[in-house]
């Protein structure tokens, strides 16, 4: 993520401080991993891990082997092997932490998809790379016109040029299978380059495009989240949220990923709550569950005959009633338990404002009152100047 003094541009380069990844925060790259092992020396007779993590446009990352033993560090712009040609990327991580990232993404050390690092990028490589990246908006606009003319049911979301400018990857989303053979021929002939079509999901599309969420912050998927797990409506039910798709859906149209962040805490808290599908049997009638407050530990029940009047109970009171029901001992009514709870809250509230917690001006200094002098006092002093010396 970017630091507080700058923000990333389209190419992932800081647009505010212009330090190109060397600011006080360590690195302005998106999805950057902090190398907390950089200041630690390796044990004796152990070689440095020769695979580095390289970042490309919009957080796309890959692992490349440093077979030439180049002195590379985080933030260096390098040229890496691709098929065909070469690509330009930025070193995002080196050292032993690369093993952790490879294990996390299930990439084996002897994988055939791990290519090698050619060299540190020269100024000529950077100029070609920048010129190719500058073509992307115009190529994307023309490609959308071609797709519309061919009548294909697909949405072109992003284009990524290769570092040497000889190949471009077109990212698209589609609900159905698309036959884009004619599209590839027209794109290759129009722009004179190799074309690769890659279909992405709605969450991956939002991660590549970026944006601001309803919380006011950058989207998690475009800044730090890399593991896109499935989100179900049960996550909203556990957290007692209304199943409103307008509030629960993110910019990708799917359920928000943040619904899973606190799900484990809610599930642990709900272990102490009784089952909501069990009714309470009383002499006054059967009461059914209405709602609960997970944070305060309250449950509300209402009689079947009078569903508009709710009675508040604690977890202990509800479990006590259920245990008596299992012994075929119905309680008299819920009013006794709710009245007992109200009396306890009243006793607790008696000592609420003893120190003046609700006063907003309790730390302010008291204002001194100005003494009002008598109007006749000044007149008497003028008439009798002798009184001044007293």
Strands of the largest sheet, in order across it? 1-2-5-3-4
Radius of gyration: 34 Å
Strand content: 15-25%
N-end to C-end Cα span: 76 Å
Known CATH architecture of the domain at 131-205: 2-Layer Sandwich
Largest sheet: 5 strands, mixed, barrel
- Number of helical regions: 12
In percent, how helical is the residue content?
25-40%
What do we call the CATH topology of the domain at 131-205?
Answer: GMP Synthetase, Chain A, domain 3
CATH class descriptor name of the domain at 131-205: Alpha Beta
Low-confidence parts: 16-27
Structure, explained:
The strands form 3 sheets. A 5-stranded mixed beta barrel has the order 1-2-5-3-4. It has 12 helices and 12 strands. The chain has helices at 97-104, 123-134, 136-150, 181-191, 202-209, 220-223, 233-238, 245-248, 263-270, 315-326, 334-349, 375-383; strands spanning 51-55, 61-65, 77-81, 86-93, 115-120, 155-161, 167-173, 194-199, 280-281, 286-293, 298-303, 310-314. Helix 3 (136-150) runs antiparallel to helix 4 (181-191). By secondary structure, the protein is an alpha+beta fold. Among the domains are: 51-121, no CATH class; 131-205, GMP Synthetase, Chain A, domain 3 (2-Layer Sandwich), CATH 3.30.300.20; 231-271, no CATH class; 280-347, no CATH class. The relative contact order is 0.06.
